[in-house]
Design goal:
The protein is of the alpha+beta class. The protein folds into two domains: 276 residues, 3-Layer(aba) Sandwich (Beta-lactamase), CATH 3.40.710.10; 96 residues, D-Ala-D-Ala carboxypeptidase, C-terminal domain (Peptidoglycan synthesis regulatory factor (PBP3), Domain 2). The protein contains ten helices and 22 strands. Helix 2 runs parallel beside helix 5 and helix 4 runs antiparallel to helix 5. The N terminus is likely disordered.
Amino acid sequence: MWLGWLVRRGLVLCVSGAVAVSRSQASSWAVVDLRTGALLLGERAEELQPAGAAYQLLVLLSALEQAQLGMLPLDVPVSVDAHTLNELGSRPGEPLRLAANKTYLFSDLLKAVLLSRSDLAAAVAAEAMWGSRDNAVEALNERAQRLGLTSTRVTGLTCEASGNVTTAYEFARLVAVLWREHEELRQWGTLRGFPFDEGRIVVANSHMPPSDVGVWAFYDRFRDSRRRARLYQRLGALVSEQDGMALVAVRLGVEDVALAMENLIGNLQQVRAEYEPVTVVRAGELLGVRVFVEGGVEPFVVPSAAEEVRIPRRKGTDGRVEVLFQLPSVVTAPVAKGERLGELVVRFDDRAWVVVPAVSPKAIGSRGVRAADVQKTR
């Protein structure tokens, strides 16, 4: 009754529809470094699992990338295909109610995907990008392959699509890419609701992270059709930034919501107990290598690191850390403060860990051009 009251009041809740619970496969989990996607700990982390709402994050990633390129701006109005509306709009538990004779902001559809796990919003957004759901499935699989998610497959644009599969490790890497590269996703993840379609409110009542553990979360939750009081989770992800370590923890597999969250937090705590952050390079730190400035009022510049680099290292071990420079021997004046001169590559245990820009810590004018004027000419 309370659900009906909320809908009549113009509120749209984001608890997915009821489906029968199946526990034919054990849960898997993975914790990765947020910056690099490197696997730190996990169990069955590379075992195929039903992907649930993971395909929706591929839709969001593709949409935000297209918006960045100007191909499909976030503020463009999007119409709804009548066939898609008839097929997906009437499914039990679909949180959005769209109309075929109306348009909706692309950004609102994407927010609804993130906050309410709406398959309908995901399908409409995908059709806006690729013209049809079949084209969208092909494009999403191609994008997954380009990301190196070689085990991830999309066969349909619903959370229950039986052919949608991924692994805990690959899903964690996908979350890491989205979090690192798209500010919109980080901002939308803080919303508890937003106005949609003439004042109705999409209420994001099941996506917020525990405040003492995470800074962003993504859950795929549903009710058991045989026991409507029980809420289950088939997929969960937490982004956490604490104690000098930025981590992504994910779990795949059907679990009671309370147990799923307890396990997910426990996985994070296990990594924090076994790893410690090691600072390799500090932001602004001079790299100790001279780059000569041809025609400059100063003969050379010593680049600095644009960002801090921290590596999560297992406690009690001495991993081998190398910092390699890729810098030109000579640059031509003028040089602007903060101008990228090259990069430094941090290697850990004989593998490339991260690449950081090496920049000029100061402006260097050319002969006849004051250093103070360099920024104006760049």
